[in-house]
User: Fold these one by one.
Assistant:
Number 1:
Amino acid sequence: MLDARRWLTFLWMNVVAAILAMAVFVFVLEADFLDGQARAVARWLDRHPGWASWTAATPLLVTIAIGLHYGRRGMRRRRAAAARGEPRQRCMFTDAP
């Protein structure tokens, strides 16, 4: 039951995210009043390429930081379980027991 609820929550959040993304896309697509502001932002980013690069790379850097955090957390849990003498959990990607 818990697993099904997690999947339904995951799917629901994806539906909400897709609706929001489509709404933002349609808003920007139909927003002729943003032309002046969009040109100003594009000119500013053209004059400051460092900011443009950092802005483009930020999601990747955040994803890497989160991955490192969860990786370290998993390694700490694995070491703690080994210290308690618990058997190693089976990995879904390998055939090892």
Note: The chain has one domain: 2-28+41-83.
Number 2:
Amino acid sequence: MKLWIVGKYFETESNTIIQAWEFFGVFDNKQKAIEQCEDENYFIAPAELNQVLSKKSIIWPGCYYPLCE
């Protein structure tokens, strides 16, 4: 089953710059996920239920920022 993850990328600055993202939800279709995006820092990405994407750090296949297009 394909699901869509919604997250928001952010950077914090203190003594070092930290790049991270916040989880905002999981949706059963792409359009519902896109509708949650409020600005260009929100991204959506596909995920298959009960499947590991990778055990290594990789660029998330299919991840993109809908409001940056």
Note: The chain has one domain: 2-68.
Number 3:
Amino acid sequence: MIDKNGMDAIKLWSELFPKHTKEINETWARIKPAWEIIRTFRDRAGFHADKPRAFFRARHDVTARQRELMVALKDFRKLFSIILHAEQSELPDLAEAVDEFLDEMEAERNSKYDRAEFKRYLMIH
């Protein structure tokens, strides 16, 4: 969701739900330090197992900072719940909103997004 070279859901949510930007940013500020540990664990011990020392170091960091991680995940889950509720009430037609967002991005960057990909993920009609 939030990766060095991937989509940043925090920025996306802020743009799609401007009424919640303050809460989104405050939550992100609280959980960002824990997110680095989670990402490192994913990279070193999860999806992309690394050399033994890196694997055990990442695993140790998760164990050593378990409380911090649990609080961060709880905060993230709460924020995600708010976003899901906002999606239903503030974006009655998500597909239309995504399509409009892509139009804006294309105009801004003078580029083209493959609508078939978004249709495949059932994000637009």
Note: DSSP finds six helices and no strands in the chain.
Number 4:
Amino acid sequence: MDHLNQYLSFLESKVYTIISFEIRKNDIQTLVSNNLYKAHIENKTSASFQEYYFRTLNNDSDFISSNDFFRQFKKRYSLQGIDNGFLDKLEENKPEILKLIREKSLTTLYINHFSQALIKHGDSQKQKDLGSFFAKLVHHFLPNEFCALDNPIKDYFKLKKESFFIAFITISTAYERWATINHATMNDIRKEFIKLDKCNIINHSIISNHKLLDLIFWSKANVK
């Protein structure tokens, strides 16, 4: 176990170093303008997603009462290759899923519902690891503790060869450490973002450090 913890610490330090380098190489105004405002406010598709995100974020009652939460979630997060049969199964298991999230039993949640999901493949079913789906769902209900990881960000942080679960934990931990140590810089980023977001697309009163850093690195990872 000590060897595993040492390895995870090594990965987390690697991600932390990349975060520090990328944020410090630009002044705050340039960073916010290029990687937050242009990518997530001027971009109409992203702006529409932000409305959905903040409306449903960490909302247990909406989650439980909705008849199509997972279909909307899949659509809004642009999750591909997932059939309605699997989404219906998730709907049936919502109470258990929410319980596991609130207990932070994330390994159990991942193994039981997302690591070997049976997805329709032609006339049969195929096992598929839905790590991105898992990460986004956990973030959606624990936004202050975990990131909404996707493959471009995973690759950007040089974790392409790592499992999605390991990358999810590693980047979430690195985000938390960086935001805590660089508290003043995070506040400067927030202030500049509020200043530019004149139409109040972002709910700045509840946006977490993990979400803010995700927005920045989503933009960086998706620049071609």
Note: The chain has a mean pLDDT of 93.
